[in-house]
Amino acid sequence: MLDLSDDPEAFRANVSTWIEAHCAESLRAIPQAEREICWGGKGFTFASQAQHDWMKAAAETGMSAPRWPVEYGGAGLSRAQEKIYREELARLNAPTPLESFGLWMLGPALLQFGTHEQKLHYLPQITRGEIRWCQGYSEPGAGSDLASVQTRAEDMGDHWLVNGSKIWTSYADKADWIFALVRTDREAPKHRGISFMLIDMEAEGVTTRPIRLISGASPFCETFFENVVVPKEDPVGLSRIVGELNRGWDVAKHLLTHEREMIGGGAQGLLGSRSLGAFLADLDPEVLEDPVLKTRAMALEIDSLATAMTLERYKDMAKQGGVGHASAMLKYAGTELNKRRYELLMSVTGSDGLEWDGPHGTLAQEWLRTKANSIEGGTSEVMLDILAKRVLDLPSQ
Amino acid sequence: MTLSLVPSEDETMLRDAARSFLAEASPVSSLRRNRDRGIPYDTELWSQMAQLGWTGVLLPEEAGGSDMGHRAAGILAEEMGEVLAASPFLSTAVIAATALRQAGSDRLSQIAEGAVTYALAIDEKAKFSPRASALQAVRQGNSYRLSGRKCFVADGSSAKRLLVLARTSGRAGEAEGLTLFDIDAARAGVTPQRSNTVDSRDHATLIFEDVEATGADILGDIDNGMAAIHTALNAGQASMAAELLGLTSGAFSMTAGYLRERKQFGRTIGSFQALQHRAAHLWAQIEITASAVANAGRVLDESPDEADLAVSVAKAHATQTAQLAVREGVQMHGGIGMTDEFDMGFYMKRARVGAEWLGDYGYHAARVAAARGI
């Protein structure tokens, strides 16, 4: 068992002993870049027994969702304790025991907008890694203009009848359930007729089709709903709507803020794991004799370091009361910087970087993948719109 | 790093006090008035700054200072930049204070009192390069004779004392063989020629003809002047970056205000998405510069010997953002932005001078590249 002492140093010692006891050395020996993520879910194939055991141990103590309340399957840690836990994970090179859209997105939405009963039912399934969720937001006709979703949920008395399709549903082909924005009132103004609905992917009429991207990978799917029956009150007596009926936009907006911070922060993670200088040191030194490449590398490094300081400063600000709409700036700056970084890496590696699996591994795939950074979770243009209107208070007319 | 990048309560109070004082005592209109009269700065304003304790921000309490540190100095420089307040603050209270304190000089209390102003005589060519100094300090018996020329000396025609980086051995281009002298500006053989720079401030070329100096005038060690001036230069560069950040914010406030008011084609121009996106991009850059500037001050306060990288990131980024802000400022104001009657031009001119002083974007980018293995 894990002793959650209030004393920071005692907590650090306890948590590190606990990690060492439950996260096998074989897992901790794998370099960060080569780790296979533990997603959990009904159909998940664990990469190893050690990965399975580590997730189990975390689930039993709630450490898969360290900040969530204990009654909902979390460990109830304070912010400071969570920070210590993350530091110890990093120090011991231990992977996080479980990652999922349930932990990142649905959980925070339920904690904010769900009923006590919904939380009791759904959250522990997430922390135990039993149910894997995916997100159903965008539609073929509703990308940046997300509020114009057309997927319909018709009121049929005791159930909803769902028809429509979602696009860019990450890992929908591997997910057990989907949280989706659906239109429950077609007469209301577009932001007011949307509900946040939970749908079982095994329900009849739900199908998925992976989308092959320019990077060759297929992390996203199209998901189709054809006369899908969603009970208004399911067998355990719970509503499948999170928050109020027709007020799903509030839930979606709350979650989008989460998602933006995640994507902006993710770009920083890549920067942190591999310094540009270290990368360049492994290349033919003649590459930097090209003054244009050298200039680009220097400018990128300045912008990267200044942006890293900005992430740190905003984290400090968030602790003191939040950054509000300004978080759109982190998403904008972080993702545009990451795209620039990969453009430079492709230039400095030259023809060696052009192979799908060449001397620089999956560099080409990563380069192509970065192009989505400034689209997913709200495009750069949408971020600039938010900053102009919400932060700079520029007029709309 | 232990300090947060968010300002402390003391720092916020300092900023608020500086802002309200400068808004009253040194609005941009006073720069215009000084320019029209050919005055580089208000001596009255400088005395008030000394009374407020700004001259002692980097000095120990026993010398009459408040020892608040480099981040606080940066906050003051930033607020001065916001309204383009001209003063010998950077030369005296930041650069000279840091160099004299490091050398254990007994003139610290004079700086804290505001009784003396300093200028740093370091450049000899059009681009900043301390090690390229060639001005000779030739030994004669127990003294030195300084001969040569220094240019782009900020506060060079008004300062009472000069910090002069002179060559006591070796040749131009070598980091060794330089010595830092602290001499009276009125010493025989020193001739200042004020330059008419675009920012209307005091910049001068100084001619040294057989100027006498003694061992007592030396700060730090003979032939090791680069070590004596290193942290002071970092401090000056960090504060210049902070001033550029303030200047950027001042220019941006004017521009954003104009976008909210100006009507064309029957609409407020700030409602055009083409302008909204450029304004939002600029605001993002300002936020990023602010982080780099806060970090430079923090590193100078916590580990001053390892500050090169943080300082150069701040100076380079602040330079880049300031130039974007003033270019966009003029463009978004349209024709009125081009007129002398409107203040934006003052911001553009100071941004250009601040971009060059103590190393331009390229100088600092090269330092970043060296530190990061590029």
TrEMBL record, chain A:
Biological source species: Pseudooceanicola antarcticus
**Can you give the residue ranges of the Acyl-CoA dehydrogenase/oxidase N-terminal domain?**
7-130
Please give the family membership noted in the entry. Belongs to the acyl-CoA dehydrogenase family.
**What is its cofactor?**
FAD
Q: What is this protein called?
A: Acyl-CoA dehydrogenase
Q: Does the keyword Transferase apply?
A: no
For this UniProt record, the keywords arranged alphabetically read as follows: FAD, Flavoprotein, Oxidoreductase
Transmembrane segments in this chain: where? none
One GO CC term on file: plasma membrane
Q: Which Pfam families match?
A: Acyl-CoA_dh_1 (PF00441), Acyl-CoA_dh_M (PF02770), Acyl-CoA_dh_N (PF02771)
**Annotated ranges, domain Acyl-CoA oxidase/dehydrogenase middle:** 134-228
Give start and end of each Acyl-CoA dehydrogenase/oxidase C-terminal domain. 246-392
Q: GO MF annotations for this entry?
A: flavin adenine dinucleotide binding; oxidoreductase activity, acting on the CH-CH group of donors
From TrEMBL, chain B:
Keyword Cell membrane assigned: no
Query: Where's the Acyl-CoA dehydrogenase/oxidase C-terminal domain?
Result: 224-370
Cofactor(s) listed in the protein's UniProt record? FAD
Could you tell me the superkingdom of the organism this chain comes from? Bacteria
Ranges for domain Acyl-CoA oxidase/dehydrogenase middle come to 137-211
Q: Which Pfam families does the entry mention?
A: Acyl-CoA_dh_1 (PF00441), Acyl-CoA_dh_M (PF02770), Acyl-CoA_dh_N (PF02771)
Which InterPro entries does the entry link to?
Answer: Acyl-CoA_Oxase/DH_mid-dom (IPR006091), Acyl-CoA_Oxase/DH_mid-dom_sf (IPR046373), AcylCo_DH-like_C (IPR036250), AcylCo_DH/oxidase_C (IPR009075), AcylCoA_DH/ox_N (IPR013786), AcylCoA_DH/ox_N_sf (IPR037069), AcylCoA_DH/oxidase_NM_dom_sf (IPR009100)
Q: What keyword terms does UniProt attach to this protein?
A: FAD, Flavoprotein, Oxidoreductase
| PANTHER family attached to this UniProt entry | ACYL-COA DEHYDROGENASE (PTHR43884), ACYL-COA DEHYDROGENASE FADE28 (PTHR43884:SF20)
Q: Which family does it belong to?
A: Belongs to the acyl-CoA dehydrogenase family.
What's the protein here called? Acyl-CoA dehydrogenase
Q: Which organism is it from?
A: Pseudooceanicola antarcticus
What lineage does UniProt assign to this protein's organism?
Answer: Bacteria, Pseudomonadati, Pseudomonadota, Alphaproteobacteria, Rhodobacterales
